[in-house]
């Protein structure tokens, strides 16, 4: 590829229906070197990028009449494998944020053209920077761009740039994302089924309105019941849960693999004595700690006990709901109820009564589910065009309830009993949010997706490794609803496990 092809004059601006291209910049990047660790490269493993060369193209555009300004950044490598890999965002960010450099570098290191979008909201971690156009008025255009509109635009723009730069379209195109990126991937499969051939949508925040609203519940329970448990108490309850439920799946390995057999109650440990590191002494577990842990695990509920949304699986890190002596225990700054429901940056969600909380929860779903929720179980169009979808979710995820992804998969299966033919979902025991935790991260997810798309080889399992008390353990993750069952032999090797329901 000639370096002179990397210039605004040489690259044809994309044609995007309903949009005006404001600018196109292009610059050649040489000697790009970056070590990309797996925990910053979701769906992939470690990749060492050395002396890569690529054309960095940024297209800025607007939807006339909407007063938005969106940028799509695309890297076009000199040594191209003929494929496009789009990357997603995280938290409140659509993409083009701090982790995008790792995501895109990893893709470049494997020969992919790669792309990301800021959805017109920039790289601020909090929506405080863009949520309100004025007090009482939500910027619905920005939210719609984050929710879905920018995603199809990104695909159209990136494919157009690939064709212009290389003289041909990508042979295959893929999406890779986790968390917000997972929600985006599911949204693409549901609303823009022609955008990508394969989608890796891991730990997806697909029911965004319920997820964001449910996060308040354990914190408000502290206020409603006037309790303030220590973080060390909640850590103790997590450890006790694992100790109680780990053996019930048939193998003592420090992980809970089958929550259907886990019936531990945090209230059974009230008054238990344990050593609290932050106090440097032994204390008794308080009733308040059990109450907050139970709230985190049971999920948001009405005063009558009706479940509003799922909670975290026992075994996840819930210490953020507790306090640490000498540190400010004030709940983190609100970014959902105050900005999008109360529409008032000064609104204090900690003053909500239980009745008001339930009202806010329902308002959030009513007002924003069409914009932000990627929860439509009908994947017919994606299936018919031959698309493939893979997701994994950590069962010790402290940010997004695993059961929400289970619910979505089950809903898709009810809509189409053959959903397993094009959508496979893998639960990862001990894995935290996208990466981390005590369990293994499935670093071959994207490779499995590519084999499925290009060779028709559906993934029957995904290999993982994690470090336990006795060294490195190899395991397999199984496509839901199957689970990895220990069949005997050396518990540190994959051959000792089989997938079964």
Explain this structure to me?
By secondary structure, the protein is α/β, with parallel strands linked by helices. The chain folds into two domains: 20-207 and 373-461, 3-Layer(aba) Sandwich (Rossmann fold), CATH 3.40.50; 210-370, no CATH class. Helices cover 29% and strands 22% of the residues. The protein contains twelve helices and 17 strands. The strands form five sheets. The chain has a nine-stranded mixed β-sheet with strand order 1-2-3-5-4-8-9-12-13, with helices on both faces. Strand 8, helix 3 and strand 9 form a beta-alpha-beta unit. Helix 5 packs antiparallel against helix 7. The longest helix has 27 residues, at 140-166. The mean pLDDT is 95.
Quick overview of this protein structure:
The chain is an alpha/beta fold and 501 residues long. It contains 12 helices and 17 strands.
List the helices and strands and how they pair.
Layout: E1 20-36, E2 47-62, E3 70-77, E4 83-87, H1 100-109, E5 113-117, E6 132-134, E7 137-138, H2 140-166, E8 172-178, H3 180-191, E9 198-202, H4 208-214, H5 216-224, H6 231-245, E10 273-276, E11 281-284, H7 287-298, H8 337-341, H9 354-372, H10 380-384, E12 388-394, H11 402-415, E13 423-428, H12 445-455, E14 462-468, E15 471-477, E16 483-486, E17 497-500
Family: Belongs to the tannase family.
Enzyme class: hydrolase
Organism: Aspergillus versicolor CBS 583.65
The outline comes out as globular
Low-confidence stretches: none
The CATH homologous superfamily of the largest domain is called: Alpha/Beta hydrolase fold, catalytic domain
Q: Helix share of residues?
A: 25-40%
Strand order of the largest sheet: 1-2-3-5-4-8-9-12-13
Strand content: 15-25%
Number of helices: 12
Q: Look up the CATH topology of the largest domain.
A: Rossmann fold
The oligomeric status of these chains comes to single chain
Order of helices and strands: EEEEHEEEHEHEHHHEEHHHHEHEHEEEE
Largest sheet, strands/sense/barrel = 9 strands, mixed
What is the C-level CATH assignment of the largest domain?
Alpha Beta
**Any idea what the CATH architecture of the largest domain is?**
3-Layer(aba) Sandwich
């Amino acid at each position: 590829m000639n370096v002179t092809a990397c210039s605004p004059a040489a690259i044809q601006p994309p044609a995007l229906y309903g949009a005006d291209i404001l600018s196109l910049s292009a610059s050649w990047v040489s000697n790009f070197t970056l070590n990309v660790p797996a925990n910053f490269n979701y769906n992939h493993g470690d990749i060492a990028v050395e002396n890569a060369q690529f054309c960095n193209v940024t297209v800025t555009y607007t939807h006339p009449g909407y007063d938005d300004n969106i940028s799509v950044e695309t890297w076009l490598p000199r040594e191209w494998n003929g494929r496009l890999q789009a990357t997603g965002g995280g938290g409140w960010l659509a993409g083009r944020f701090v982790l995008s450099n790792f995501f895109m570098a990893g893709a470049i290191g494997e020969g992919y053209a790669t792309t990301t979008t800021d959805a017109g909201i920039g790289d601020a971690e909090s929506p405080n920077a863009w949520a309100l156009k004025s007090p009482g008025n939500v910027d619905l255009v920005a939210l719609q761009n984050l929710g879905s509109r920018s995603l199809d635009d990104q695909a159209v723009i990136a494919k157009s740039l690939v064709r212009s730069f290389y003289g041909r379209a990508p042979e295959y195109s893929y999406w890779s994302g986790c968390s917000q990126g997972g929600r985006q991937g599911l949204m693409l499969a549901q609303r823009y089924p022609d955008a990508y051939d394969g989608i890796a949508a891991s730990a997806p925040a697909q029911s965004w309105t319920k997820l964001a609203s449910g996060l308040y519940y354990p914190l408000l329970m502290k206020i409603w019941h006037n309790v303030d448990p220590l973080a060390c108490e909640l850590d103790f309850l997590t450890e006790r849960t694992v100790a109680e439920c780990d053996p019930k799946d048939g193998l003592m390995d420090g992980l809970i693999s089958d929550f259907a057999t886990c019936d531990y109650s945090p209230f059974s440990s009230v008054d238990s004595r344990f050593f609290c590191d932050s106090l440097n002494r032994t204390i008794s577990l308080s009733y308040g700690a059990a109450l907050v842990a139970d709230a985190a695990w049971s999920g948001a509920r009405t005063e009558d006990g009706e479940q509003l949304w799922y909670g975290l699986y026992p075994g996840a890190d819930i210490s953020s709901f507790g306090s640490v002596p000498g540190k400010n225990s004030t709940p983190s700054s609100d970014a959902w109820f105050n900005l999008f429901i109360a529409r008032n940056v000064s609104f204090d969600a900690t003053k909500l009564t239980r009745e008001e909380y339930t009202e806010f929860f329902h308002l959030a779903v009513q007002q924003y589910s069409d914009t932000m929720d990627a929860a439509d179980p009908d994947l017919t169009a994606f299936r018919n065009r031959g698309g493939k979808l893979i997701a994994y979710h950590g069962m010790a995820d402290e940010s997004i309830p695993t059961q929400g992804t289970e619910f979505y998969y089950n809903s898709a299966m009810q809509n189409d009993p053959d959903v397993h033919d094009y959508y496979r979902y893998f639960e990862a025991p001990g894995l935290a949010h996208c990466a981390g935790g005590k369990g293994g991260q499935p670093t071959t997810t994207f490779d499995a997706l590519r084999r499925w798309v290009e060779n028709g080889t559906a993934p029957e399992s995904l290999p993982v490794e994690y470090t336990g008390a006795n060294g490195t353990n190899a395991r397999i993750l199984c496509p839901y609803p199957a689970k990895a069952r220990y069949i005997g032999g050396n518990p540190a090797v994959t051959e000792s496990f089989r997938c079964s329901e």
